[in-house]
Amino acid sequence: MNIGLDIRMIGMKRTGDEVYMRYLLEAIRDQSKPPFHYYLFTDNPQWQEQDLLRDLPEHMTVICLLPAKKLIWTMYLLPRACHKFHIDLLHVMYITPQFFLPKTTHVVTTIHDISWKFVPEYIQWKDKLLLDLFIPPSIRKAHRILTVSKHAAESIHTIFQVSREKITAIYNGGFMDVYMKPLTLSKSVQKILETEYIAYLGSLQPRKNIPALIDGYAEYLTQYPESKLQLVIAGGKGHNYDTVIDQKITEYGLADKVVMPGFVTEDEKYALLKNAQGFFFLSLYEGFGIPAIEAMSLKTATVVSDLSCLPEVVSDGAITVDPDNLQDVAKAIYRVRHPGPKEKEIIEAGYLRAQEFSWDTMKQDTLQVYKDILINT
Question: Is 241 in the same domain as 287?
């Protein structure tokens, strides 16, 4: 039997969904005597530049489909490839092919979140139009919908009126083991590590609510003007970058206090999280929130918003705040800078909670879904 996977996000620096697919491909690569052959469909002619896709075992084959225009690729090239390679199960992210698929092809889609339904004002109109147009029929087309938290599963059920039996919630991983190898770090990151700082790492889209963190940080500095604490905002200025970040930095005159190193490597992410006095994740909507779990696993004090899935995911292992209340945010900054017994208790609880989110479990649970569909039905 043959399984096809849409791997276009590999190498795109798209944070959550790329991390998800990378770990899934690692699980597939490491299988011994796999029951399926896997066809990995991409639109990148330079796919061999990705270390993950080099020297693949015999049960994995990369297929580049061109041209790389999104709708043509999804609606025409991908179904055609399913016919050509006799795909029994096709796993995509969000939007599924609507026509021309083989009748025998089962479709699985992973919907990480439905943020455009909860915070539409922060999503570009073209993205909203595309999602509103294609997600409902994609949900109908799919044999199974995967998502990454109970909150996300319930939201999909409620908003799209899909049966709960069709949705499977499989938590992401996130727990990071202590690195035992030397780290390769840029000079800019090395310089950050010499300072005292709190951090945010992730995409810089409006729904991540980074301006609220800057507001709270500015309030903290107003209360403690002698503080040398810096704010590190790490992430690439990619699709749908929140330009209010720049406006806030200018408004508060924080150009010398807010450090933006851009996209960081895995080594740099580890170093920045582990050495931060606190990690702040004040997102307005998340499907899961991988960075929060990563920070908790490194025993870094973590502060999250009290919205969407984040209270479910962090449980009692992080400080939760109202992201619209800058006094709450400023107080949380003080708490991670000056941890007392309560804060230390939360950090330990965070470490234990993070251990519950293993990429190995996510990988095995996802592969089991494939088996349930293709073998056990």
Answer: yes
Number of domains in the chain: 2
CB count in 10 Å sphere of residue 271: 21
Closest among 270, 197, 269 to 232, alpha carbons compared: 197
Rounded to whole angstroms, how far apart are CA atoms 367 and 144? 13
Spans of the chain, pLDDT less than 70: 14, 377
pTM over 0.90: yes
Instruction: Please report whether residue 178 resides in a domain.
Output: no
DSSP, collapsed to helix, strand or coil, labels residue 182 as coil
Are residues 257 and 336 located together in one domain of the fold?
A: yes
Distance in angstroms (rounded) separating the CA atoms of residues 285 and 283: 5
> Cα–Cα distances in Å, from 91 out to 27, 114, 317, 327, 363?
15, 18, 33, 44, 14
The phi and psi torsions of 115 (rounded to 5 degrees) equal -60, -30
CA distances from 229 to 113, 244, 368, 372 (A): 33, 22, 46, 51
Please give the pLDDT value at position 377. 65
The DSSP secondary-structure symbol of 309 reads: T
Rounded to whole angstroms, how far apart are CA atoms 81 and 7?
14
Three-state DSSP class for residue 365? helix
Residue 221 and residue 141 share a domain: no
For β-strands 230-234 and 258-262, DSSP reports them as parallel
Give the separation between CA 153 and CA 170, rounded to whole angstroms.
10
- Separation CA 5–CA 61 (nearest Å): 10
Is residue 237 in some structural domain? yes
